[in-house]
Amino acid sequence: MARRAKHDCEYKAELERVSSELPEPSKEIKPHPYGIELGILLRMLKETQARNVRGALSGDFTRVSPAVADEICKVAGVRPEADPKRLSTSQVELLFRAIPKVRIMAPPTACLSPIGDALLQRGLESRVECEFATAVTRPPAVYRGNPFQIEVGLAYGGKLPAEEIIELYRFANRVPLQYQQSACAITKSATTIDWRAYGLQQSRGGLPAGPLVLSVHVASVWVPFTSESKEAIASYPEIVKELRLALMEAGRRLGAFVRHRRRAADEEKKRSYIEKYIPHIGDALQAILGRTDAQRNRTVEDLKVILERSRKA
Predict the structure, then answer these.
(1) 165: which DSSP letter?
(2) Hey, which CATH number is domain 38-101, 1.20.1740.10, 1.10.8.50, 2.40.50.140, 3.10.50.40?
(3) Rounded to whole angstroms, how far apart are CA atoms 182 and 191?
(4) Could you say which of 51, 217, 258, 312 would form a disulfide bridge with 151 (CB–CB 3.0 to 4.6 Å)?
(5) Options 3.20.110.10, 1.25.40.10, 2.60.40.10, 3.30.230.10; which CATH number does 109-255 get?
(6) One digit per residue, pLDDT tens: the chain, 313 residues?
(7) What is the pTM of this model?
């Protein structure tokens, strides 16, 4: 068998960058109290260098001022001046349950490195020949005291296959996840969305079918992978909630586009009917009423105006 020439086996693809700016480097921050686990809180209070509970909460957590720390202690019924290392397990549990009841600012975004909705949309538009593209960046949230941020981009229509299952691209801190898709929180969240409400076909418990590319990015200071292979993200309730909110927001934008396009197609269809049949009506009226050509043309124009008004109404 003849050996194929070397140049026949080579494949070269050149993808131009959509941005020449590097992302802002992330900064180190302290844990955020929302979403922290009881065991971690116990360990932090035992190992803190602060002399009292107020200092431990305000010094070892981000977004917790002394006033906020006092409010947490008040809700928990624990003295702010108490030694954190001498607190009993029940007292720490009271603090743990009091934290969600106190209003605390969201974690700073300086510790995260999101792609950004504008750049995510431009990236999709440059890679996918589509009719519509959009991107959503959720505000930062917290799980186990770790800030994270969800971004969702989608591209619809164009030359994408209309009858096949959608393409789902998963990213964690800008790194693509290529395997274990079914075990990932991103996939599980996408399958729980009712995509039929946004103009796509979907079987129960599966990804939708339609001309759609879906890109989901999870940015976090600590991504909770399901295993050491780092190919799937664990389904923490806080992460799943943010994923669903971002997916539904992108879905609503897609649904608005699909409905607008459907209305435009219906209007064009009705307009074509007017253009097709009104001249014949004009000819019939001319023959019945004995009108001149000028009167027929004027009648046709009047009928078009009346039908356009009634159609728009």
Answers:
(1) B
(2) 1.10.8.50
(3) 10
(4) 217
(5) 3.30.230.10
(6) 444 445 556 777 777 777 777 777 778 888 888 878 899 999 999 999 999 999 999 999 988 999 999 999 999 999 999 999 999 999 999 999 999 999 998 887 778 888 888 889 998 988 888 899 999 999 988 887 788 999 999 999 888 888 889 999 999 999 999 889 989 999 999 999 999 999 888 888 889 999 999 999 999 988 999 988 889 999 999 999 999 999 999 999 999 998 888 877 777 776 776 677 777 777 787 788 777 878 778 877 877 777 767 666 5
(7) 0.71
The answer to whether 93 and 153 have CB atoms below 8 angstroms apart is no
Q: Write down the residue that tokens 């000819």 correspond to.
A: 283
**Using alpha carbons only, how large is the chain's radius of gyration in Å?**
30
Contact 80, 53 (CB under 8 A): yes
Residue pointed to by tokens 């999870």:
218
Tokens found for residue 225: 């992978």
Q: Using CA atoms of 214, 220, 223, 224 in order, give the dihedral in degrees to the nearest 10.
A: -100
Strand partners, 154: 134, 214
